[in-house]
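Subject: complex prediction, re-run

Hi both,

The earlier run crashed halfway through, so I resubmitted it with identical inputs.
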Amino acid sequence: MLEIKNFSKSYGDKKVVDNLSISVQPGDIYGFIGANGAGKTTTIKAVVGIHDFEDGSIIINGHSIKEEPVICKKMMAYIPDNPDLYEHMTGLQYINFIADLFEIPTKIRRERIQNYGDLFDMTEHLSGIISSYSHGMKQRTAIISALVHSPKLLILDEPFVGLDPKATFLLKKIMHECVSDGGAIFFSTHVLDVAEKLCNKIAIIKNGKLVASGNTGDIKGNESLEAFFMEVQGNE
Amino acid sequence: MSNIWILIRAQLINFFPINQIRETGNKKQSSMAIASFGIVTLALFCFFYNILTAKTLVQVGQQNLIPAYMVSVSSFSILFLTVFYSNGILFGSRDMEILQSLPVKSSYIITSKFMFMYLLNFLIGLMFMLPGGIVWGLNGSLNLLQIILYFTSIFFAPLIPMCIAACMGLVIVVASSFFKRKNVISLIFSFAMLGIIGYFALSALQSGDESSIGVTLAKQITGLYPISRLFMSYYNFPMYYGMGFYIVLSIVVFYLFVKIASLKYGLLNTLANTKSSYANDKVSYERKSVFFALYQKELGRFLSSYMAVLNAGLGVILLCVFSICFLFNSVGQIGNSAGIENINEYLSNLAPVFIASMLSLSCPAASSISLEGKNIWILKSSPVEIKMILNAKIAVNLTLHLIGYMISVSVFMLKLDMNPIQVMNLVIVPICYSLFITVIGISLNKKYPNYDWDSEMIVVKQSLPVIVTGIIGMIVLITPIFLNWVLNIPITFVLQVVSVVLLVITMGVYITMSKSNFI
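This time it finished cleanly. Structure:
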C-alpha cells in the first residue's frame, strides 16, 4: 500500500530525514513514533505530496508520488496535526469543496457527510463559518472531509491532539473499520499508550534515522512501548 | 523604553527575513536581493523625480514653497498609503494574543506597532523631503536654524498623517464590528474614506485659479494638506516658528493618539479580530467540476480578505470610477480644462495604455499563493494538477480585470470617435497586458511564496512578488510611451508590437510554470 524506500530530505545543509525505509501493507495500522523534531512530520508531508524530496522513492499502490502525484493523492487522505482550514467557508462548504476535488458524486457525498456529521456531532454546526469553530470542531471537520472519499490509505499527523474522548473513540473505531475493509493507516503520535494498543506495527525515528520498525509485539518484547522508546532515545 | 525597542526589534526580524538572510544557502537570499533591487530602483526614481519638481519650483521663482510642497505631498502620500495597512499592523495582527499576555503595557505595544509603521513611512517621507531640502538649501538664502528645523522636521513629518490614517482605520474597525458581514462593511467604509481623501485632493488641485502662480501653488499645497501652511512665510511670520510649531504639534498629536488608543486597545483588537459570524443555512451537496470548485474557493478567499480587496482591487475600482466619471463629462470639456487641443485623438491613442495601467495595478494573483498561508496543505495534498490550481487563481484575477475592462472599454467606445485601428487596440491591448501581468504575478508568487505571515498586509502589499510585479508592470507600460516619445514611432503601432511580445512572454512563462508537480 505504501512503500517508503531510502527516503532522505534536507532543509538547506541540514539532513532531517536520512535513508528511511518503511513498508505499510493493507490491514496495517502503522504508528510512527519519535521525539519532537525527529522527522515524523517531514516524512508524512513528503508521503502526501506536500514536500518535494531529493533521494529515495515513495510509492503508493504502485504509483510514485513524485511522478504521478494526482493518482497517488486520489487514493489517500491526510489529516494534519493542526487543522488549518479555509476560515471563510462554512464546514459544509469546506467538505463539499474537498469532495469536489476528489470528484465524489452528489448522492454518495450526501450520505457520507450526513453519516459522519451525525457520528461526530457536527451536523448542526456545518452551516456555521469555520472561523467560529473551536479547535476540536475544526479537527472533526478535517476528519469528515478526509473520510468523504473513502480513502484506501489514511495518513494522520498527531490525530488525537485536540479531540475530546468521544471523538477520539470514534476515530479509533473508524481506523479499525478502514483496515478491516482492506485499507491501511500510517500515523504519527506522541501518545505511546495509544500506539501500543492501536498499532499492529510501529516505526521509531530518531534524528531523522529509523531505529526500529516492525510488529509492535516483536519490537517492544515484554516491556512497555514507553520503556522501549525511552531506552532507544537514551542510546546515542 | 527598552520594552518598546524589544517589541520593535521582534517586528523587524519578523518583517524582514533577517535571520534567513544570515543563514548561508537560504533561498530567501536571492529573493531579498531582487526585492532590494526593486525597492532601491523605485526609491531612486522617486528621489530624482522630486529633485526635478523642486528645481521646477526654483525656475518659476517659488523656491520658498519647496518645504511646504514636500511636506504636503509626502504627508498626503503617507496618509493615503497608511489607510491601506494601518489596521493590519496596529490592530488585529496575529501576534496580538501573545503580546497581550506578556507583562507589557498596552501603550508600549501600540507605540511599538506605530513606530514600526513609522519606520516604513519615514522612508517614504525621506524620498520627498530630502531631495526637496537639498534643492531648497542650495537655492535659497537660508539661515542655519531654518535648515536644521527643516531636516529635523523630516523625522516628524509622518506622525500626523499616520495618526489621521490610524483614526480612520479605527473608525472602520469599530463601525464594521457591528455587522455580520464585517469584511464587506469594512471595504465599503475604506473606499468611502479613500473617496473622501480623493475628493479633498481634487478640490485642492482645482482651487488654484489665481493670476499669480505663487498664490495658485500655495493654495493647492495648503488645500492638499492644510498643516503645510506652517512651512510657509506669510504675514511677516518667520518660517522657523512654523516649523518649530509643526514639530511640537506632531509630538503632541502622536502622544495623544497613543494614550487614547491604548485606553481601549484590548477592546479594539477584539473588534478587529471578530470574525464574520454569518451562517449559510442553505444545505447543498451538489457536485461541481474541479476547476469551478477551485475558482469558487479562490474567489471567496479573495473577497473575504479585506486587505486583498482593498489593495489588489484598487486599480479596477479606480478604473470603474474614472470610466463612469468620463461617461458623464463631455470630451471637449475635458480637453479644454486639460489644455489639450485634439483631445479625441489623444485619448483614442492612449486609452488602451490607461486601461492597461489600471489593470496592472490590480494583481491579486501575485499574492494569491502566499495568501493560502497555513491552508496551503489543503491544495498541496489534494489530487489536483498544479496547472488547475494556478488556472483557478489566474481566472479570479482575470474576472476582476474583466469587470473594469468591460466598463471602461464600453465607455471609451461610446465617448470617443475612433478609427478601426484604435478600436482594435482598445479591445486587444488591455487584454494582452491583463494576461501578462496576471501570469507574471502568479509565476513570481509560485517561485517566491511566503506562507508564514502574521498579517495579510505583508503578502498583499509588501511581498517580493507584489513589488516586482508592480515594477515589471510599470516598465511594460512606460516602454511603448518611451518608444513613441524618443523614436517617434506611432503609438498605435508600438502598442501592437509590445502586446505581441507580451503575449509571447506570457505563453512561455505559463507553459514553464504549468509543468511543475509542486507548488
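The interface with chain A takes residues 23-26, 275-290, 292-294, 296-297, 300-301, 304, 373-378, 380-385, 517-518 of chain B (CB under 8 Å).

- K.
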